[in-house]
């Protein structure tokens, strides 16, 4: 750690702990945990996934942001984009005077207002190599909250580029984390990346590896999801697979398996190691939250409520997991999506879809599953449950205050 770059916080946890508890804790969530992750409210029964909400990386990022504001009370403090994908948390930071830097049409952050006297927080997703270099050149104090799981993927992608392998990344090319991860290939001359969203896109790559497919068509399809100058004939000869840490782990593993099979078909089993590498880089918190939802759905559920930002990748995947298992699932951004006055529910039906409103969603419902993305604070989970109870006209069976 230097005087202008910090990655380990400022030792102020005891100072900010009370504020963090006040801003994000929930007596309702505490009661659910104490009651074996179940809570009754009249005829309703709420069942909470055993892994939910803030993960370690998010906890750390939010804590460092609060510490930063405390450490530098007289300085301007900026944040490169959103600290995490949760509107409530980002609004809290804004209320503390932390200024969010926006992106231009080219995806680069506008740093024009920064000076060497300012403090800049890097988000949990990290920033691109180019943006990091621009920030260091300005001389501002940098507080880096990049998640350790993301850093592990960066090391893997950089190693692929160093060894002459194209980094094939399972992720969303527009997501901050994937953009930062893909940029790691620029640390080595000739580094290349290609981002695939799902198995359908991965199969296009597999077909080309096996000798079919059209390079021009692929270039058009992946125009926004590949490194400049990408040559499908040259750059798919050697591939290393990585992933955005919040993707569905099963799909990431399946994509890697299919890519490997294509290389075996093209070059034979004996030489596949010269053409293909893979490592499971799904973060443990993402995996645990997905596993907890699957476990929760082993018992009958009338519906699932998934709480978290609409632009939160891990949250959208939790909702998809529920729907894939035939369970009615509503992905809501915040507790306010449950309208107590009208009984209506606002939700996102699928990724990037316009928000929709539904009525009668509690009709004949008795058991409600609850989970939340890794960037959702406990108080928003608790508020959601209380608002559902209000719509249903029931009172949660909470222990008396201590």
TrEMBL record:
Known EC number: 1.17.7.4
Residue sites binding [4Fe-4S] cluster per the record: 55, 147, 283
GO biological process: dimethylallyl diphosphate biosynthetic process; isopentenyl diphosphate biosynthetic process, methylerythritol 4-phosphate pathway; terpenoid biosynthetic process
Binding site for (2E)-4-hydroxy-3-methylbut-2-enyl diphosphate: 85, 175, 245, 312-314, 375
Top EC category: oxidoreductase
CDD domains: lytB_ispH (cd13944)
Protein family: Belongs to the IspH family.
Described function: Catalyzes the conversion of 1-hydroxy-2-methyl-2-(E)-butenyl 4-diphosphate (HMBPP) into a mixture of isopentenyl diphosphate (IPP) and dimethylallyl diphosphate (DMAPP). Acts in the terminal step of the DOXP/MEP pathway for isoprenoid precursor biosynthesis.
This protein's name: 4-hydroxy-3-methylbut-2-enyl diphosphate reductase
Organism: uncultured bacterium BAC-L1N9
Gene behind this protein: lytB
């Amino acid at each position: 750690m230097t005087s202008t770059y910090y990655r380990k916080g400022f030792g102020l946890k005891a100072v900010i702990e009370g504020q963090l508890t006040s801003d994000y804790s929930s007596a309702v969530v505490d009661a659910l945990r104490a009651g074996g992750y179940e809570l009754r409210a009249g005829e309703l029964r709420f069942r909470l996934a055993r892994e939910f909400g803030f993960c370690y990386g998010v906890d750390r990022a939010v804590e460092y942001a609060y510490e930063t504001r405390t450490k530098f009370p007289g300085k301007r403090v900026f944040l490169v984009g959103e600290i995490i994908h949760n509107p409530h948390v980002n609004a809290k930071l804004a209320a503390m005077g932390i200024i969010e830097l926006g992106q231009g049409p080219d995806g680069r952050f506008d740093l024009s207002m920064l000076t060497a006297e300012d403090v800049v927080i890097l988000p949990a997703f990290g920033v691109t190599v180019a943006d990091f270099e621009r920030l260091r050149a300005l001389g501002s104090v940098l507080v880096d909250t990049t998640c350790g799981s993301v850093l592990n993927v960066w090391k893997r992608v950089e190693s692929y580029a160093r060894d002459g392998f194209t980094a094939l990344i399972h992720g969303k090319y527009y997501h901050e984390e994937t953009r930062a991860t893909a940029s790691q290939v620029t640390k080595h001359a000739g580094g290349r990346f290609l981002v695939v969203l799902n198995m359908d896109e991965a199969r296009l790559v597999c077909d080309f590896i096996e000798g079919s497919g059209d390079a021009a068509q692929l270039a058009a399809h992946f125009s926004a999801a590949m490194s400049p100058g990408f040559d499908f004939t040259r750059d798919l000869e050697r591939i290393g697979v990585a992933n955005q840490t919040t993707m569905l782990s099963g799909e990431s593993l399946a994509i890697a398996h299919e890519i490997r099979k294509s290389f075996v078909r093209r070059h034979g089993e004996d030489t596949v190691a010269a053409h293909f590498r893979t490592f499971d880089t799904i973060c443990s918190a993402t995996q645990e939250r997905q596993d907890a939802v699957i476990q929760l759905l082993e018992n009958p559920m009338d519906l699932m409520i998934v709480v978290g930002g609409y632009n939160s990748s891990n949250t959208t995947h939790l909702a998809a997991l529920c729907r894939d298992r035939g369970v009615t699932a509503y992905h809501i951004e915040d507790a306010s999506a449950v309208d107590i006055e009208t009984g209506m529910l606002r939700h996102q039906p699928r990724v990037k879809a316009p928000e929709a409103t539904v009525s009668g969603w509690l009709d004949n419902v008795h058991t409600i599953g609850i989970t939340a993305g890794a960037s959702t604070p406990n108080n928003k989970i608790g508020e959601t449950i209380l608002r559902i109870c209000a719509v249903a006209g029931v009172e949660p069976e909470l222990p008396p205050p201590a």
